[in-house]
Specification:
Blueprint (H helix, E strand, L loop, with lengths): L12 E9 L5 E6 L2 E3 L7 E4 L4 E4 L1 E6 L12 H10 L2 E6 L10 H14 L3 E4 L15 H6 L4 E3 L8 H14 L2 E4 L12 E2 L2 H6 L3 E2 L1 H18 L3 E3 L5 H12 L4 E5 L1 H5 L21 H13 L4 E2 L8 H4 L16 H10 L6 H16 L16 E11 L18 E11 L2 E5 L2 E2 L2
Parallel strand pairs: 1-4, 1-5, 6-7, 7-8, 9-10, 10-13, 11-12, 13-14, 14-15
Antiparallel strand pairs: 1-2, 2-3, 5-16, 16-17, 17-18, 18-19
Length: about 425
C-alpha cells in the first residue's frame, strides 16, 4: 500500500487564476506534473478561481465506506465521490465492514478498490481485535506490513485494559496509531441519548459523559506507560476535552478528533424523536458543544473527522430504539466548520487547514497530504467559495444513503474544486473520474 503516494498524476498544466491561498492575497497558481510550480504556462488549462480560497486537500481520519458487506448503503466508489465533492483527498476507512477488516486480505481489498476508483486516497483502518469482539488482538503486524497506518475497533470500545495495553505496546514497535472509541460499555447498556435533562424528559435511557471520560483517562495513562501514539475518536464531552488538555500538558502522545455534528448540534434536537439525530457518541448539550469548539480552536482537540456513517432508509426510518446510530458527513463537513468556527472568529482559513488537513495528515503519518501550498509541493488542494451558501438535500448527496441531520439547512461555504496530485477529482458539484 505504500506505493499509493507515488502514483503519477496527469502531465498537463493547470492554472488556478486569482486563487487565495489560505484566504490571503490572490495569486495565479500553476500546477504542472502534479506539483505546484513556479512561473507561467500559456498552454495551461485555466480555472477561474477569483475569490476562491485554496487549502490543502482535506484528510478524514474517520470514514465508514461500508464495503465490503453493506454496499446497499455505501461503496468505496460512492463514498470516494462524496469525499472528493466535500474537498477531501484522503480518507481512512473504518474496520467495521462485513467481514471485518481484521486481516491483510480485507485491508488490501479496501486499498485496491480505493486505488481503482482513484478519487481520493483510501487508507484502510485495521481492527484492533478479531471481529471487533474485544477478546483477542487481530493480526496487527501482518496488517501493518500491508501498509495499515491506524487501527481501531470504532463502534466498539477496546474495553479490556490489558488488551488495550498490549495493543498500545505492539503499536510502538509497528509505528502505527491506535484509535479508541471511548465508551465504557458497562455504563451504556441500553443507552439511547446523552444522560441529562433532555433524555429524562423524553424517557430515553441515559448515556453518561463519564462513560467516555473514564476510558480516555485510562488510555492516556496507558499511552504514557507504553510510549504509544493514542488517538481518541469523536470526542463529545467538555470533561473529555479537559482530560485531553491535562494529558497533553503531561507530555502524553495523544491526539483527538471532533465531528462536525458535535460542534454544531446538541441534544435539544432529540425532542422530535427523529432517528436522523441518533449517533454514537450521542449529541451532548449546547454547553458541551461550546467547549468542544473552544478546544478545537485552542488545539486541545487536534482535528475534525466526519465519522461519515451512511445507513439504509429502513435502518433510520423506524422507531428511535431500533434505529442505527450515525450520520452522513463528508459533503457537509467544511460548511459546518465554517458555520461553527470561521464565522464566529474561532478559526481563520489557516486554522481550517490545520484542523481539516495538516494535523490529521500528521497524526496518521501521511507525507504527501496536508502539505504547504508552495512550489515543489503536491498539488493536492481544495478550492472553497467562502461567500457561497447552499441548502443541504440528502437525496442530492453522492452517498447512496441520505441520512443527513442537516436536511433543509442553509450552510455557508462551498467546495468548488478538489485536486489530487494535480488532477481535478471534483469541480462544481460533479466528480471527474
Amino acid at each position: 500500500m505504500s506505493e499509493l503516494a507515488s502514483t503519477p498524476s496527469t502531465s498537463s498544466s493547470l492554472l488556478l487564476k486569482g486563487v487565495r491561498p489560505y484566504g490571503e492575497d490572490p495569486v495565479d497558481l500553476l500546477v504542472r506534473d502534479g506539483l505546484i510550480a513556479d512561473g507561467t504556462d500559456p498552454d495551461a488549462e485555466v480555472i477561474d478561481a477569483q475569490g476562491l480560497v485554496a487549502l490543502p486537500g482535506f484528510v478524514d481520519l474517520h470514514t465508514h465506506l461500508r464495503e465490503p458487506g453493506r454496499e446497499d448503503t455505501e461503496t468505496i466508489a460512492t463514498g470516494s465521490a462524496a469525499a472528493a465533492l466535500g474537498g477531501y483527498t484522503a480518507v481512512f476507512a473504518m474496520a467495521n465492514t462485513d467481514p471485518v477488516a481484521d486481516n491483510a486480505v480485507i485491508v488490501e481489498h479496501v486499498w485496491r478498490r480505493g486505488r481503482e476508483v482513484g478519487l481520493v486516497d483510501v487508507y484502510p483502518v485495521g481492527a484492533v481485535t478479531v471481529g471487533l469482539a474485544g477478546e483477542k488482538l487481530a493480526e496487527l503486524g501482518t496488517m501493518a506490513n500491508a501498509g495499515v497506518l491506524m487501527f481501531s475497533d470504532d463502534g466498539h470500545c477496546v474495553a479490556d485494559p490489558l488488551l488495550m495495553r498490549r495493543a498500545l505496546e505492539y503499536s510502538t514497535a509497528l509505528d502505527v496509531v491506535i484509535a479508541q472509541h471511548a465508551e465504557e460499555p458497562r455504563l451504556t447498556v441500553g443507552a439511547q441519548a446523552h444522560e441529562g435533562e433532555q433524555a429524562a424528559r423524553l424517557g430515553l435511557a441515559g448515556w453518561p459523559a463519564a462513560a467516555e471520560e473514564a476510558i480516555i483517562a485510562r488510555d492516556c495513562l496507558l499511552a504514557r506507560q507504553t510510549g504509544a501514539r493514542l488517538h481518541v475518536c469523536h470526542v463529545s464531552t467538555s470533561g473529555a476535552a479537559e482530560l485531553l488538555r491535562w494529558a497533553k500538558a503531561q507530555g502524553i502522545t495523544v491526539s483527538a478528533e471532533v465531528t462536525p455534528h458535535h460542534l454544531l448540534l446538541d441534544d435539544e434536537r432529540l425532542s422530535t424523536y427523529d432517528p436522523v439525530n441518533k449517533v454514537n457518541p450521542p449529541l451532548r448539550t449546547a454547553a458541551d458543544a461550546k467547549v468542544l469548539r473552544e478546544a478545537l480552536a485552542e488545539g486541545v482537540l487536534d482535528c475534525v473527522a466526519t465519522d461519515h456513517a451512511p445507513h439504509a432508509a429502513q435502518d433510520k426510518d423506524c422507531e428511535w430504539a431500533a434505529a442505527r446510530p450515525g450520520m452522513l458527513g463528508l459533503q457537509t463537513a467544511l460548511s459546518v466548520v465554517v458555520a461553527t468556527m470561521v464565522e464566529p472568529g474561532l478559526l481563520d482559513w489557516r486554522g481550517v487547514a490545520r484542523v481539516m488537513s495538516e494535523r490529521p495528515a500528521e497524526i496518521a503519518g501521511l507525507t504527501d497530504q496536508g502539505r504547504p501550498i508552495a512550489p515543489g509541493e503536491p498539488a493536492t488542494l481544495t478550492l472553497v467559495d467562502p461567500d457561497a451558501t447552499w441548502t443541504v438535500r440528502g437525496a442530492e448527496l453522492a452517498s447512496i444513503a441520505a441520512n443527513t441531520p442537516y436536511e433543509g439547512m442553509e450552510l455557508p461555504g462551498r467546495v468548488v474544486t478538489t485536486l489530487l496530485r494535480g488532477r481535478v477529482t471534483a469541480h462544481e458539484g460533479k466528480v471527474r473520474s
